[in-house]
Amino acid sequence: MKSTGTHRSYQIKTICNAPIELIDGDRGKNYPKQHDFSSSGYCLFLNAGNVTKSGLDFHECAFISEEKDSLLGKGKLRRGDIIVTTRGTLGNIGYYDKSAPYDKVRINSGMIILRPLESELEATFLYCYLRSALFQSQVTKLSSGSAQPQLPIRDFRNIEIPLPPLPEQRRIAHILGTLDDKIENNRKTAKTLEAMAQAIFKSWFVDFDPVRAKMAGESRESICKRLKITPEILDLFPDRLVDSELGEIPEGWEVGTIIDIATISSGKRPENRLERPSEDAHIPLWGGNGPIGFVTEPLIYESCILTGRVGTLGTFFRINTPCWPSDNTLIIRAIKNAYYEYVFFNISQIDMTLLNRGSTQPLLTQSDLSSQPIVIPSSDIIGSFHDVSYTLLQYANFFSLNYSYVVIARDTLLPKLISGEIRVPEAKYCVEAAMSGEV
């Protein structure tokens, strides 16, 4: 963590000598067993899925009773605590601040709690540091174990941490927090816009609302107002449902498979890749979980949909810029431009876990995905859906792209600010550019 130019590095201390209390999780005979957990209860007991690379995630929670909680000693969280995973997936970070929806929370035995001394160490600064490459590289060097990586607490104590003066910690935390807020707002806006398009898809092609409204004798004016569609679009829908192998579908529509409206192929392994973009290598390399690097030229130039082929299943990405999908992805391309959104939402609703052919790791084959049954309406109705959903998804793409730019700005500034390579005043231009979308 050496400084450059006229800048000075901050004071460096190991965690065992820093103003931080390390708290291990409970173990022993009272440690909860599988039958002690429930979907609701007195105390949230964190699992590996709750502490992610992006912070705390409460989508899937396990709880223990008040009686079980009373038998445990260590590992109870206070607001302002920071959680680090130390077994299996190492170095995931969670900040238990006032936004967390649960008041009673415990860590499991594969985590530790960092509790900073408030008079000397700002919790939000510590959280920023733990998310930086400066910290993560130390975690990698100190980890042990091949089958299940782990970072014992005795080794964790030797990790180094920079300690700027407390006012500087707060300034750094504020500037990085501003970028984090922008990232979260852009992410939520993109998700909201995509959810609006998905709701229209469900109404038209899953629930068949226009058809059912006609069957119920509802007036054209009422249907158009309630479903927010034009009379011209309403006229494209039939007024009757008929039986099919997929259940009732609108009259005149067909049952087909994904391959009837899209092509599916595998990605390829590039010859070379870079971790960060450069002047020559700025094309995103995509894996099943998202971007994993950069290459010099695209494999795909047109819009496509990517999903994981091996290792990761069930995540879908709409890609609208040139890219290189890696060999652990499947590339889905609509047979017509106007079918793109219809293909995306059809594939997104498939439960990929049912298609998993892997034993040691998840695996999805082209043939299995291609053969999934779907309902195929008329081209006119699919085209109308394209006209309605295209604008929503284009705005979603804009916010997603801006999200990516701000993430790059934050991840570039974070190690430089925390190491003392640059100071907050010098970072303000990058922050202002990121906030205005000029990164």
Describe the structure.
By secondary structure, this protein is an alpha+beta fold. The protein contains twelve helices and 22 strands. A four-stranded antiparallel beta sheet has the order 2-10-7-8, covered by helices on one side. α2 packs across α5, α5 packs antiparallel against α11 and α11 runs antiparallel to α12. The longest helix has 41 residues. The chain starts with 10 loop residues before the first strand and ends with a helix.
How many strands? 22
* Low-pLDDT residue intervals, each spanning 5 or more residues: 1-7
- What's the shape? globular
Radius of gyration: 26 Å
Mean pLDDT: 89
User: How big a fraction of the residues is strand?
Assistant: 15-25%
The DSSP helix count reads: 12
Estimate percent helicity. 25-40%
Summing up helix and strand content along with how strands pair, one would put the structural category as alpha+beta
Characterize the largest beta sheet: strand count, sense, and whether it forms a barrel: 4 strands, antiparallel
Widest sheet: strand order? Answer: 2-10-7-8
Beginning-to-end CA distance, first to last residue: 26 Å
Family: Belongs to the type-I restriction system S methylase family.
GO molecular function: endonuclease activity
Pfam families: Methylase_S
Domain Type I restriction modification DNA specificity: 27-194, 250-379
